[in-house]
Specification:
It is a single chain. By secondary structure, the chain is α/β, with parallel strands linked by helices. Helix content is about 45%, strand content about 15%. The protein is elongated and about 65 Å long. It binds NADP nicotinamide-adenine-dinucleotide phosphate.
Length: about 260
């Protein structure tokens, strides 16, 4: 296995795009982008000034590393159709096992960035925890090195623990964002702009940067204020699903050990 310099990106979505910029910043070369649709393959390849293909059979065979960053279902599908023999290959999923790629190459691994990515938002990769896993010590060492060139936070994590990290990320990020959505609907229905919530959202996130969430929890549920909770339930009378969420979360907050 030679040092990873020339890299093929299989996928052109949120993660592939952000990875590409971080890899280039670390001095690597993206030699080709594969995606199933020409528009997205061309777009990412264009921004990297490199080649693209939409044909799996045309994937460049001479790269040092292949990074599969497709949706989890598509990664599963492609892993049955792609044969890279002994070329090092990784996927970027939080919830797929390392073994999924064992039919793709003798050298398979995982390169999972614990962050939320969107296509048009650049992130500082130096701060992102990069979770690496590989099926051999040599490959793992090389992945660690690559990750270390991109980020200050490199973690060796096996598939089982990575899946738990991903589960935690769903709570910390995806569910939290959905709460913003609910809050936004409530304020907008009452003629406020979502903007009115932003200082609160910002301060909540800032507090938890310094302290554990057990220390920063506020609100009627942690105070056990039945009267306020009752008023809120009345106002959600026509939205039984939101009542259910409110009731469940308040009950669990009430059980928090401070
Ligand atoms: N987004 C995050 O915040 C994040 C964070 C960490 C890890 N991850 C993981 O990284 C991986 C990629 O996530 P992402 O957010 O970058 O995904 P995404 O933006 O939805 O990108 C999806 C990519 O998969 C391709 N694709 C979708 N359906 C396909 C199919 N049926 N067959 C073939 N290709 C298909 C798309 O191709 P076309 O555009 O050509 O259709 C695109 O290149 C996933 O495993 C995800 O779990 C995501």
């Amino acid at each position: 296995m030679q040092e990873f310099h020339d890299i093929v990106l299989i996928g052109s979505g949120n993660v592939a795009g952000q990875l590409a910029y971080a890899l280039e910043k670390a001095g690597k070369k993206i030699v080709q982008v594969y995606s199933r649709t020409e528009t997205s393959a061309r777009q990412l390849a264009g921004s990297l000034n490199t080649e693209y293909t939409i044909d799996l059979n045309q994937i460049c065979q001479k790269a040092d590393l292949y990074i599969i960053s497709l949706t989890d279902t598509a990664t599963g599908e492609i892993s049955t159709r792609l044969d890279l023999v002994d070329k090092p290959v990784v996927h970027t999923s939080g919830s797929l096992s390392l073994d999924l790629l064992c039919g793709v190459s003798i050298n398979h691994g995982v390169f999972y960035p614990l962050q939320t990515f969107s296509k048009n938002r650049k992130v500082n990769f130096r701060e992102i925890p990069l979770c690496v896993e590989a099926n051999s010590t040599v490959f793992l060492k090389m992945l660690r090195k690559l990750a270390g060139e991109m980020s200050e936070r490199v973690l060796e994590v096996d598939s089982e623990r990575r899946k738990m990290l991903h589960l935690a990320a769903v709570f910390a990020c995806n569910f939290t964002n959905f709460m913003y959505y609910i809050a936004g609907k409530i304020v907008e229905r009452n003629d406020f702009d979502f903007e009115v919530l932003r200082p609160l959202i910002e301060e909540t996130a800032k507090k938890v940067m310094k302290d554990k969430p057990q220390k920063t929890q506020t609100g009627p549920a942690i105070r056990g204020d039945q009267e306020v909770m009752g008023l809120h339930m009345d106002r959600l009378m026509n939205e039984p699903e939101l009542q259910e969420i409110y009731r469940l979360l308040s009950r669990e907050i009430g059980k928090m050990k401070i």
